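Morning!

This is the sequence you dropped in the shared folder:
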Amino acid sequence: MFLGEYTHTLDAKGRLTIPSKYRNELATGLVLTRNPVDRCLLLFPQVEWDRLADKVSALPLTDPRSAAFRRAFFSAAEDAQPDGQGRILLSPRLRSHAQIEGDVVVAGMNKFIELWKPALWEEKVAGVLADVDFTGDFFSTLSL
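The structure's back. Tokens below.
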């Protein structure tokens, strides 16, 4: 389970140190890809990636939205293995998509991780929290 928010800095080679709290779940491998709807990267443990990849692959081949999603999702995917110090390389192509240059927000999303440029993360989270109406109706639809 991936919970919490951390800020780490890429090293000169573009490597990100994975928070120690997350390393055991990623030790057997992971997959990084771009988020097709946001300027961030998605990081999945191999097991979660395999489940999601099966679902995406099962989408109808003739549906244009499914095809566009598949192309964006799979064509950017890169598998990785953390090194002995818990670092992974973020390729220039993926860093460019997420506009990540130095600092990276590593945000746990339960079954996966999002990687964000700090300014974009703050805009996304702070902006949404300020604008969204979290009234009782919202929580009742979630049975909370």
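Headline: The chain has one domain: 5-117.

More detail when I'm at my desk.
O.
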